[in-house]
Amino acid sequence: MDTLLSGVSLLMRWDVFIALLVGSIGGVVIGAIPGVGAAVAIAILLPATFSMDPIVGLTVLLGIYGSSMYGGAIPAILVNTPGTAVNALTTYDGYPMTQRGEARRALSIAYSASFWGGIFGILCLIFLSPLLALIAPHFGSREIFLAALLGMVLVVLAHRGQVFAAGMLAAFGILLQTVGLEPVKYTKRLTFDQSWLASGFDLIVVVLGLFALSQAFLLLVDNDKQPKLEPVTGSLFSSMKELWIYKRIATVAGGFGVLMGMIPGVGEFTAQFLSYTYARKTSKAPEQFGKGSPEGLIASEAANNAVPAAAMIPLLALGIPGEALTAMMLSVFYVHNVIPGPGLFQNQLDFVYALYIAMLLLNIIVIVFLLFSTNLMTKIIQIPTRFLGMMILTLSFVGVYSLRNSVTDCAIASAFGVFGLILKRLNLPIVPIVLGMVLGGIMEVKLRTSMTRVKTPLDFVDRPIAAFLAAAIVFVIVLHIRTLRKEHLARLKGETDDDLDSQLR
Q1: Is residue 498 pLDDT above 70, yes or no?
Q2: Contact yes or no for 222/424 (Cβ under 8 A)
Q3: Domain residue extents for the chain
Q4: What are phi and psi of 122, to 5 degrees?
Q5: What's the Rg (C-alpha) of the chain?
Q6: Which residues lie below 8 Å from residue 125, measured CB to CB, with a gap of 6+?
């Protein structure tokens, strides 16, 4: 109880309260503007959070991370344009409801499902993080290396149809991490006698380039867009009771969100797909899905909003991020010498409790704000995209320069911005590069530490947790190969049937 009160006292400060408001409401606004998204906003804000207290900086970032998908549902439902990428599935049933004249009902259902998903994910975080932290002290260097390797494998395999490209980009991220002084003996690597490479590629500079600057370039080179929206009339409270009518779908969707959020590299898209598929298969009216089904809307929104809190579970308990946004947050932890893992629960439990309470509060702030300010949000969505691109460009360069007052960093960020733009144009993933840099650094240090006690390859997996993680890696790869083989055989069978049909004709 004393620890809980200490955590509450951490939040009872004016700067934390302002951070809660800025993060939660700012996240909604950013999520509602198509073309921005949480990753761009967090990348821009990262340099500023380094000078804040850790609880203040993390509260802002968690607020944006957790609330952006609330806002992303607004344009997805009203104009068939998802505010964030993970709200794409919301358009399937949200926009058809708007076309039927049920925009208010669709928004009300989306808000209530998002709120339920967020609270459900936080409750799971509160109960599961300490359990994982109890197991975490049994993780030595080998186990952490294998856990990070498993995360890397899952990140790559999660990009169905782009596994080779994702693998190459993850390897490129690992290569970027090796430039500069190596972490054990501090010798120079891959610097080619260039002084500007001696300190390596800063993660924040790379993140700002890949996410923020690339999006700014994309908005500036594309045609200017300014969506037109009609105001939403009526009370948003009236349809929130529908969540109780479809409580089974909401609970299962939240469960999928938590499970997929805990697994590195999987995230919102898989959670949405699984929950949406489950809802359609178990529905009494499956033919309505994609045509304005409230069940489909609940399945999508509850699943994606449960993921952010669940993604914090491996980050807090093991110090291993599962996707790009938690990787950015990990840098804030390290800057303030707050090391995620079992030691965090033993030595700074009040800080952990403060994070839990902050995440609960931000969901409450967001739902109250949206219930009374949806029409204000419809005006914000109409910001011209090129003006938005110019704003992102300016803020990104300010953020990069403020890190080390370095023009070289601005040039590096610009190069990665162009590279990120090329990847987006080619529809290739950016996340593997960032996770390659973060997980690559963890893997290198832990591998080099563990190799001093490993004499044979079997010594690497001679402990239960290490053996389990190694088996999980092999299982995931074998399962993926079998899935690819089945898909290949199915395609061959389809081609054979087509050939036979053409011959019969």
Answers
A1: no
A2: no
A3: 2-160+226-383, 459-505
A4: -70, -40
A5: 23
A6: 309, 310, 312, 313, 316, 356, 359
